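Course assignment 3, question 2. Fill in each field.
Student: A.L.
Task: Predict the tertiary structure for the chain below.
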Amino acid sequence: MTQMRTTTNDQVTWASGLSVLAGLWLLISPWVLGFSDRQNPLWNAVILGIVIAVLAFIRAGGWYSAIWLAWVNLVLGIWVFISPWVLGFADQNAPLWDALVVGVIIVILSAWSIWATSARGAPNAPAV
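Answer field:
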C-alpha cells in the first residue's frame, strides 16, 4: 500500500508539474508564436495560462491537493481547445494550433492527475 501511495503521489506531482509548464507556455505563446497583436487569442492565452499554471502549481506543491483543482484545469483545457471557434480566431493559424495542442495537453494531464488521485483512494489526501 505504501508503494502505491508513493507512486500515485508521484503521478499527481508529475501531471500537475507538467500542467504548470503547459500553462506557462500558454502564457508566453502569443509572443513566441507572434500573435500578441491579436486581442482575443492574446488575452485568452494570457489569462488561461496564468490560471492553469497557478492551480497546477498549488496542486503539484502539495499545499492544497484537492481533486477539484485538477477538475477545474480539465474544464479550462476543454475551453482552451474550443476557444478558437467561440472567440472567433479559428481562421488564424498560430493561435488556433496553439490552443488545440495546449488544450489537449491540459486535458490529458488533468485527467491523469484526477485518475492518480482517485487511484490512491483518498481524493483529498495531501500529495506529499
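Instructor remarks: The two ends are 15 Å apart (CA to CA). The CA atoms of residues 16 and 81 lie 19 Å apart.
Grade: pending
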